[in-house]
Amino acid sequence: MRILALIALIATMTLGSTTADARSMFEPRGFSSPERERRYHALVDELRCLVCQNQTIAESNADLASDLRREVYRMVEDGRSEAEIAEFMVARYGDFVLYRPPLRPGTVLLWVGPFLLAAVGLAVLVAHLRRRRRAPATPLGEADRARLQRIIGAED
Amino acid sequence: MIGELGHLALILAFLVASIQGVVPLLGAWRRVPAWMAVAVSAARAQFLLMGISYLCLTWTFVVSDFSVSYVALNSNTALPLVYKISAVWGAHEGSMLLWATVLAGWGFAVAVFSTSLHAAFRARVLAVIALVSVGFQLFLLLTSNPFERLLPAPMEGRDLNPLLQDPGMAAHPPMLYMGYVGLVVPFAFAVAALIEGRIDLAWTRWTRPWTTVAWAFLTSGIMLGSWWAYSELGWGGWWFWDPVENASFMPWLVATALIHSLAVTEQRGAFRAWTILLAISGFSLSLLGAFLVRSGVLVSVHAFATDPARGLFILAFLIVVIGSALVLYAWRAARLAGGGEFDVCSRETFLLANNVLLVATSATVLLGTLYPLLLDALDAGKISVGPPYFDAVFVPLMLPLAALLGFAPLARWKKDGWRRLWAKLRLPLLVVVLASLALAFGTPASWAMAAGTGFALWIAAGVVLGLRDRLRHRHGASVRRALGRGFIGMSLAHLGAGVFIAGVTWTTGAGVERDVRLAPGESVEVSGYSFRFDGVAVHPGPNYRAVRGTVQVLRDGEPYSVLHPEKRTYLVQEEPMTEAAVDPGFTRDLYVALGEPVGTEGAWTMRVQYKPLVRWIWLGPLMMAIGGLLAAADRRYRPLARPVRAAAPAADKARAWG
Q: Rounded to a whole number, what is the largest CA-CA distance in chain B?
């Protein structure tokens, strides 16, 4: 599926080919506790590689992603919390760096919208069912009647 | 020469489609049989011409005719033949040509199998498909001509993007386009029904199998794309909530709603206007996806503004197609009201709830995909909406659907009793809840894993109960007849949903991923498997050089499997590519990807993964697709494909609307 993104990219020729200096994405790192390791992975999976076409820093082998991973690792090992590190990144790069958009006035619709949609949909459904129950049965349309007649006729 | 022939065929196809889009409509309106009949022969001619055009482009790839600019940009003499053929859809122009050819193919198929429809309706359907064709052919001719010459011709081509040189990628776009474009059939049927102002049993009998087939293609296309990402991108992910993935997922969700809504319309005559609206929305989302991908708007709203020709064309086309369909809907939908009565506790209600959830989910994906573009366009800041967001909103919307899926197919049409359903379900529900609790407390599995497993078991239980019910109440009919392909297909597809949920749950929750640095002879232990690195060797390929690692997998000290992850450098584009090695299995995959060499003693970094049930993520959708095809082949649709003008067969009586 990503390929369509690549095709779009090639078609628009905005970034050219992605021949980054390929440093390894698979850096073996030692952690002083499993909790810190979990925190590190949670963070690198949610931070955006700013110079890539829609990749997290965990997925990218670009230099910047590699630098950010090292930075995250250092801060995790310094004992900083997830929120602190995310804040640091936002202060440096803006909200764009977070794949989990922060809740602020401009993003309320984004976060509430899905549940609002489902709730309104279900409410309309319930209202519709109630109205239906009260209303008399809808008579068959002309076409249906003719068709039914034909079907029953065909049976005989 | 061949290039010009292809171009000419494309122009002729455009002219034929223009005639097919206009004359039959006028004929249906003025009641001129000869004009209506034009539709069928034009649909055949159009497909023939598009087929010629497509084969011409393929030929220029096969013979490496680099005087065609598109070939020079996307092929190379050293490229293996199979990838020369698949390179045709490797970039923008060719994939649009594939899109238009597939569209003409669906039109042709409808023309061939629609002899049992009445002439005016058939003419309208084929004309609507042709009008959509005209738009895409014009788009190709005006903004994206794949046959454009490049003179003087270069000696060598720039090669196909190495990422696309993979079997999964060779099959993914055609499948996906079959699905995307196939949604034009229910769309055309809906528009034709709106023009006529009526829907009858024949309409749904017709639309339903076609929609199901298109949906099955879309399902398998998305599945192949996910499989490709897993095997080719090098880090074992299978879905990224990338906007381009979302572009195919939105129509899939709506098409899924549509096949369920069509079930009600066919069986009970209800939800007609809603079904029509879904048919329109499904294809509209396909077009929107094409716009998002083709216009460059996803890369950035500014990229769109710098080269606006393609984007503006599709945007205008999108507005014309969707706008006119919706205007027609607003004008005519009221005439379509009607249908059978049903109680609150009935299968109809549950299917409506299914539709609400699927449509809300599709709208959610749309919201998340477009939101950053909107904010950016309004200068309200740049944000990223990625996997953490989609996971957070998608899962809560899908869980009620999974719960519904377990019991809704057991409910009766028209009127059921809560008490009857409860009596049927309480035992399986108890078993499922106990099994999940046992998993949560008795094993290291997390709560999320226990819950996910519970939902998968619940769906499986529902399928088993459904089969038992069917067989118990078969009234002496043979087993084959009592079940029927429609029912088997549905059961298989529903079970596929459960298999998919189990796969996602276990891969996400119990997968192990380890980044290590290994020198030759060293090994790492992951989930009971020992991976010993035996060093790398140079391994030449047809159009790349590879460094090929050897990783010996041992279990309990015994040799278990040998994996050969590669790091390839393609000779033309010089892009380093990670070719992961996978030991696939029904219960787990072992996955090794090479990183980089480190130090002097031949050590490499690499990622070693243990992925339980990861195959189930694709097995589930495969079951859904096969289920769809089975259901579409149900015997009750068969008379429709034959030129029968008599009334529906007697067996239909029981299923007639009332």
A: 84
- Nearest alpha carbon to residue B114 among B23, B210, B47: B210
Cβ atoms of B471 and B487 within 8 Å: the answer is: no
Contact A150 B648 (CB under 8 A): yes
Query: Hey, are the CB atoms on B198 and A10 less than 8 Å from each other?
Result: no
pLDDT computed for residue A152 by the predictor: 59
Partner residue facing B607 (CB), from A4, A11, A26 = A26
Q: Which two tokens stand for residue A25?
A: 């994405």
Q: What pLDDT does residue B300 have? A: 55
Q: Are B282 and B254 in contact (CB under 8 A)?
A: yes
Instruction: Report pLDDT digits (tens) over B371-393.
Output: 998 888 888 888 899 999 999 99
- The verdict on a CB contact (< 8 Å) between A2 and B248 is no
Nearest-CA distance A37 → chain B (Å): 11
C-alpha distance from B286 to closest chain A C-alpha (Å) = 14
In the numeric block, the tokens 């999964």 are attached to B168
Residues B307 and B378: their CA atoms lie apart, in Å, by 20
How far is the first Cα of chain A from the last one, in angstroms, to the nearest whole number?
Answer: 55
How far is the CA of B164 from the CAs of A131, B83, B159, B200, B249, in angstroms? 54, 8, 10, 46, 21
- Taking CA–CA distances from A107, the nearest residue in chain B reads B371
Specify the residue for token string 């809740």. Answer: A103
Residues whose CB is less than 8 angstroms from the CB of residue B608 and which lie 6 or more positions away in sequence, other chains included:
B513, B514, B516, B524, B526, B531, B590, B591, B592
CATH of A2-97, one of 1.10.287.110, 3.40.718.10, 1.10.8.640, 3.30.413.10: 1.10.8.640
Interface of B with A in 242-271 (CB under 8 A): 242-245, 247-248, 269
Instruction: Please list, in sequence order, all residues whose beta carbon lies within 8 angstroms of the beta carbon of residue B388, skipping any fewer than 6 positions away.
Output: A45, A46, A99, A100
Type and span of the H or E element at A75: helix A63-77
Nearest to B371 by CA among A75, A28, A108: A108
Q: Is the ipTM of this complex over 0.90?
A: no
Closest CA to B36 of B137, B114, B138, B132: B114
The radius of gyration computed from the CA coordinates of chain B, to the nearest angstrom, equals 27
Determine phi and psi for B513, rounding to 5 degrees: -130, 125
Domain boundaries, chain A: 2-97, 105-155
